[in-house]
Amino acid sequence: MKKILLAIGLVISTTFLFAQQTSFPVNGSFDTRPGMFAFTNATIVVNANQTLTNATLLVKGQTIQGVGAGLAVPKGYVVIDLKGKFVYPSLIDAFTSYGLSETPAQQRGFGGQRQSIFVSTKKGAYGWNESIRPETYVKSIFSTDSKKADELRKVGFGSVNVINRDGIARGVSAAVTLNEGADNSVFLKDQTAANYSFNKGTSSNDYPTSLMGSIALLRQTYYDAQWYGKQKDEYNISLDEFGKQQTIPQIFEVDGWQNILRADKIGKEFGKKYIIKSTGDEYQRINEVKATGASLIIPLTFPKAYDVEDPAEARNVTLSQMKGWELAPTNPASLEKAGIKFALTAFGLENSRDFWANIRTAIENGLTEKQALQSVTEIPASLLGISDKVGSLEKGKVANFLISSDNLFKNGNIIFENWVQGKRFIVNKMDVSDVRGTYNLNVDGIGALTLKITGTGGGSTAAIERTGVDSVKTTATFTRNGDWISINFNLKKNPKGDVRLSGYITSANPVTIKGESALADGTTGKFTATYKEAAKETPKKEEPKTTLALGPVIYPFSAFGSTELPKQETVLIKNGTVWTNEKDGILQNADVLLENGKIKAVGKNLSASGAKVIDATGKHVTAGIIDEHSHIAGAGGINEGAQSVSAEVRVADILNSEDVNIYRQLAGGVTTSQILHGSANPIGGQSQLIKLRWGKSPEELKFAGADGFIKFALGENVKQSNFGTGARFPVTRMGVEQTFVDEFTRAKEYEKALSVKGNSVRKDLELDAIVEILNNKRFITCHSYVQSEINMLIHVADSLGFKINTFTHILEGYKVADKMKAHGIAGSTFSDWWAYKNEVAEAIPYNGKIMHNVGVTTAFNSDDAEMARHLNQEAGKSVLYGNVPEEDAFKFVTLNPAKMLHIDDKVGSLKAGKDADVVIWTANPLSIYARAEKTFVDGIAYWDIEKDAQVIKTQQAEKARLIQKMLESKSKGGRTQRPLGDAPRLYNCETLENYSAELTEKEHAH
Amino acid sequence: MHTKTYLFSLALSATSLMCFAQANISPAKKQSKTIAITGATIHVGNGTVIENGTILFGNGKIISVTANGQVPQDDVMRIVATGKHIYPGFIAATTNLGLTEIEAVKATLDFQEIGDFNSHIRSIVAYNTDSKVPATLRSNGVLMAQPTPQGGTVSGSSSVVQLDAWNWEDAALKTDDAMHMTWPVTPRFRGGFGGFGRPQQSPESLAERTQAAIAQLTSFFAEAKAYSEMGKPEVINTRFEAMKKVFAGNEKLFIAAESQKDIVAAVNFAKKFGITPVITGADEAYLIIDFLKENNITLVVKQPHALPNNNDDDVNMPYKNAAILANAGLNVVLSIDGYWQQRNLPFMAGTVTAWGLDKEKALSTITLNAAKAMGVDKTTGSIETGKDATFFISAGDALDMRTNKVEQAFIQGRDINLDNLHKQLDKKFSDKYTAEKK
Keyword Hydrolase on this protein (chain A) (predicted)? Predict the structure, then answer.
């Protein structure tokens, strides 16, 4: 009993005993050995900054006793002469799942359908959501894995950090060595870091379904953990553990640089500095990544070239995939150059053997060897807080080291041995005699031949040559086991069939091999091979070291990206038909002057020195289009619909600056878009207003100083008429009403409770958003269709004291336009959509006109990445359906949505002082014949139809270059993958995704 | 696969369809009197325009189309359309119009049968003349359509209908005008089908699946062809029976194919059976224009109001596509996905005009070219002597929403009612507000 207790004590304790004491019993006699070794005459790389030549390393037991040149070897040490060889600290991988059983695949219904599991099904006093599992300690579930350890040791790793990669809060990882033995004997540190991700993993709960939900859940968990420490009402292991783990390092696994920024933002909010494990695309936005200040753990997974031999198939490969193939190997160098601290991991490699090839590729692409070594030794050690034990070869540290034939990073280097905790693991036999050379070979029954042994490790391949009669050259199979050598070859004739030789080295200098021979016809005899001369290796053509010609990084890293963003200029647009959207109406032959991102002047005969003049004769000049209802430029799902209220989620968290739809919509004259949460639940998430600044970072897309909005929704979607299990409340319009009543009632109580001094009210991000609405600090955009529900929400709002800002979709707005008008509610609708579901059976294209005529601020929106490209023509439909005056009609997509979004002081019309968001059209913008020639945002021409033609050409040339390069790579034997494009990702209100499942799937699809 | 589901795509509950207004919009009576429309700009549909032209029509047929303001004999009803435009009725190709009422309500979905080889399936019998949708199309100039079955490899036969009828018999201009099929394809994108929740399929196994589907299709056609040559088969096979017309050249074959490889494969496949197919979809047709011309292929392309197929494509490619093909000399028909959306058909032709195609040629893509593809060009598709008097008068350019203003429309000479549900609801509620104001 005592022994068991002690054993547990050992595991839990943070100091580990590397002496040879043990609490474990032995079956039989103890075999305790001195374990003292002296490695002499070696080139010892103590760390990346210090290399000792002709030096000695002393090891006793698990510990390094000394390192130095001219170190005396005390008695009792086994001396291993490493003349000509190298000693390095064994490598450390900061990101593995070594020694953990594979997490079971996510149990989900068919087709990703939700299962309506609202709270945790896990046994125990844990938190409500299974994806928050900080209670998971690797130290309690780890078990050594000889096979995997062997694989990693062969690569050169001596210790690893073990992470249970399951959930959003994943619990505590541990560092272990790759030694064999009892589980407790390999621990370096039992609590290296608390771990996080955006992937809910095996959690059976529906929530969160989206990336923004994952972010919101994590954010709420931070608050909950803070609250937990101060309260007495609830017992909750998960929150308790979460709180306790805040003082150790924090590792966050993400995919892609945008998620680095997202994780970092959460970190900043809660004063955390995460170590971020990402996926190796950081070079695409190195400055933004650098600005986070985060340390990174980066994989060496470089995409395989695409097989582009068939031009028809090659068309499927995108520019960003091609450039990604070319530039991914530059990522480590790029990080080094930027001065970002990073560790390298073998995680994600298809085959761990690729590790060295890929690290060399990274070095060819500019990574220094010094940095490479640090990134696999000292840096991971310091990130994990195990620098006192591993990462360099110093007295007192754990004896984890490699013996290699050469500089570790040199092509052809052989790792002979990997010592872990003072235990020797042989990777390649060290002291094989060199048998490479050309031999006179005499085989009974055949006669004189020439044998050539070449290759690595003192000889690994062989070739046979016969000159004169029946001259032949052939390769032979060559196997060697110590001094025993066998060679098989086939001379085609004289004799026919395989000749098998089997013998041993009889003399080392000169090398002589003797043994038995067997011919195909069964005759046996003898053979002798006598060393003649050194083998002339077929002179391998040293590839002339071409300086790697690489394409530039473009922003965004996708088609239509550019190396340099268009610049803000002073622009004078002359002599156009100018739709001011102001009192002046439509001005003929008028000018618009843009300066410093603002409209400087609108009028006739303007002039400005130094301005770039654009002749707009015969053209129309308008304010940029504003899309009140858009779902572009988002990542990881636009609906968080697992619960009926998700006011805590924020589109601001998941902006995606790389979405090509930004560019496509600029081409349709759109300059500002409200990115809304979807309509899967009555209270959705918080919206984000953006400007279409193509090429800028996600943060830079945000419309500065705009009011916050939130998405509400009514009708078929929120009651899940056409999807889901029907188990989530509400399923009727009656229930929808009560969802709002309940939420607002609770929010009021919450606000009241918060106002009490010294309260211990749990901060609730969901209710915070509702309180903001009640205080007119956040505004509602409500998806709605039929008049009954519209009327209902107006009543709920009146009775609970909040305002509805905008009804969006609002296809039956025409039936309640008077009520909307009376309440000052705006209507943002579709021009002509109907019949796609039951609640739009009476949607009519005259809706906009009627609302407008009644006096409702009316807009047309897209909710669709395609329609947003021609919202001007959608506005034109209000002329067709209802004869709305053209000036008013165009305001449906400019000034009116600006009013709804409270930004009409900045955008929506052409007026001095407003933002220079301007479009030049070839014709009346309401006409089907109008094309946008230039679209300015902040005075920057992000869309220019002429420049676009050039961009397309440049892009084609760049693709052609990359295709050539991939073909070359293939012909040189490089591995390839089938050209499959990235499927376009388009969101509308009704798109349901399962973000975590997709992440997991992507990983398995490699 | 994008693990995404459209909320309305899985209509599991069968909601009973409510009936709304519109019961008072009756199909128009037969033309009783010969009519002459004078003074208008006549957009013939074949690429030509007649300024100040006169159309004379009687018994539902066009008697003459003349230029220079000729005024016909006395005993006709006259419509003066000076300054106005006359267009042939637009034809909505490959649509599920009349085969569905509400996309999200399963009970109203009658366009997609189960099974792979549904050559015996016929859309005409499900075409609902009482649907509220056609009237909303007519008022924008869409007067004919080709309700088309979908799904499976061979989906069945479409028919051509006019949009003002008491029942499907009245509506039919040509029954079973074309057999529709979809060329089996391997997904181009990562994920693909297999998708979420199911094990990922390797590209190889997906390609194999495609090959198997093509093999099945080939044997279906081969056996159907052999069957069609039998005098009296021992066992009647309704699927093969339905293919007889296709082999005999009395029914067209429309094949949906998108990528250049698939289009070439589809055309060559049809040619083996002596058929010149019409290719629908045809996203990558612009890459193989010569091949298509050599084989005299008509294309039914998708709406220009679409997103580019590939991330890297010219952002305006969908707008330019039809013009590129038509300017190269191919017979191009414009279509739109869906049914209620068909009222935007004229504006699709307008878009094509904006992006490079001559306006009258763009008009042909929704009139005469469509009629040719469906084999009804002898009787309709353009304003020419002897054809059906199916056309409309617009106050302005009908291809532009700014100016499309359909004032009067004739289907086979019948002066049709241009009212529709939407106009009625507009009136109902506009009247409410006007009344309240007073």
Answer: yes
